[in-house]
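Researcher: Batch entry, complex prediction.
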Amino acid sequence: MNLHELVSELIIDTKGSVSGGLFSLPTADSSIGVFTPELCLCATIVLLLFIRLFNGGRKVDLFWVMLIGTGVALVASSPWKFLGSHPPLGGLDAVSRMEIFTGMLVYDPFTVYMRSVLIGFAFLFAIFTKLSGIPDKEDGADIYTLVLGSTLGMCLMASANHLLMVFMAVEMASVPSYALAGMLKGRRTASEAALKYSVYGAGAAGVMLYGISLVAGLMNTAHLPTMAVQLAERLPEMPGPEVMVLALGGMMIMVGLAFKLSAVPFHFWAPDVFEGACAEVNAFLSIASKAAALALLVRVAIGFGAIPPTGIEPGSRSVAQHHAATTETASLNNHAGGMFALADEAHAPTPAAHEGGAHDEAAHGDEDHAAATAIDGLAASRTFMAKLIAFLAVLTCTFGNLAAYGQTNIKRLLAYSTIAHAGYMMMSVAAFLVMAGDAPLQAQNAIAALAIYIATYVFMNLGAFAIIAFLRNAMHSEEIADYAGLLRRCPITVICFSLILFSLVGLPPLAGFIGKFAIFAALVDGYQVSVSAGHPAAFLIVLLVVGGMNTAISLFYYLRVVKVMTMEEEPADRPPFVYSEVSLQGAFVWLVTAPTVLLIINWNVLSEWAHAATLYLLAAA
Amino acid sequence: MIGISPVSVSHYLVVGAVLFVVGAICMATKRNALGVLMGVELVLNGANLNFIAFGSKYLRAESLGLDGQLIALFVIVLAAAEAAVALAIALNFYNNHATIDVDQASELKG
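Model: Structure tokens for the complex:
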């Protein structure tokens, strides 16, 4: 392969066509074409930095820049188009699995789903912070830049396909979060929270990188799908010491992931950071950061335990289309006397690439078959991962719920609640790994359950932290005791908060129930599949029992908050405050509470999207 | 010739592992926030040494290849970015508490 071929392949990978000039637009199936939402975020960041540079924050309200930036990015990621009931099939922009930027990232429906959740959350977050008034004229640009930078990192986490990208994305998401945690200037607690977060985070990232170096060095590749294939070939007769190093490396990578998930025993930072940082940042950390960490956990779990389908090459569709078009014109020209030699020239470089693409499409079936046989070689690492994740999930869930019991600060209580929810969500990944070998379709459904849970969780936690922030603005307190008797002051807000708390428990008519039910159903599915495959995974039943018991435990501490708000007398020493419910703030609270209440009426759309999102995660058996 | 063998991957890995362990101990025992950050740098550089060794084609027939060197480059840049943010946060902590002893960061607990 000479340099010219290399460069033209790179151009096809990046923007989909070699024929156009330097400034021709990338095609819809090229790496840049499918990376548009992230590029919108990048453009908004650069714009914000320029405005900051020229001190424009005093003249323009940067909220609008943020809102428009995230709005455009959300439209560009358009889940309604790619995941809806009639996704575009066969066209240039149909979503299947595609490894973009020479295999660094992966673009599949799961990427579309997760980045829509993340960018959609950033959009709601912009409105939320505007209403709670945290980004003022001085700091607005900084805060929005940090939030967008972190969101960009989280989008990369959701689409990472290479161990380098795993590390880079985790760092990109974490480093702005450290600064966000210390956003409140001159507060002792905020600076302490930021220090703890950054020290723990840097340590966990270091350990994770060392684990990555061991795994990549042992497998001689850092590309996750290649690694899975290598692992499947070598694992059955791998010598003992190498298996030990591999397991050590895998566990070190899990340290980094567990830190992002705030899974026990790497959860120490979460309660402290949540108490010290402001409620807005808590919402960001507990929703976006967690959703991205779970998506990354799924990606890494697939990299170690299952083989994804081959997918298509970026640009192959448009090259094929271009090739078809040029052959047509060429034959027409030949028919007309071959006057345009130019057309032949233009089509000259394409056949090789096109044959490559066609070969890929043709070989797809065979390779999928090979993948199905190769996946058996991964059974050992899959079981190991499933048990490790299940163990962490049990610890995380139980510890989070027990520790939440004695809390007096509402933000700290929700921090432990967040930890517990991370535990529930990790359970679905364990079920996924158990089923990945024997029943790929059901395994994908386990991830669909996770996707549903994440979507409901966005609204529940955003609503909870929005109410905490608005109440803080009014009464300058985040202690649960100060919420006593709020029912008389602001009945609608208290009702919304109670509904959200019941939803966090997972009581039936509310959205939290749908997510929890989906995950528990996935656990049962996993057990049944493992029994019919002849290797019963009893730990899934343990997970189910622990999950059920934890739901019961969590009822107590969530209900205690509701009881304080509704039943107790107002404290006599509470300073007077004004909280108006008929306001934009009140409207925002209703807006985010509405989905938690109304989702039960029609959750087909969400379920459809979630199932569409997981279609190309595993090669069909 | 007893005791003399050509330099191989394992020699690099031993140095990397020593750096990692020293860094981890440093992170766990230092009370000064800057000391903890230095420990993080040691851990990252231990991992970097692994990447370089695994990526070198002179040490093993099958290697990680250019990926190893490139990851090392990216990690150097990221370590600098992370250190910048962490130092700014340490300075902020000093402004509020007049110390950078991590044991003094104990107002938030429970």
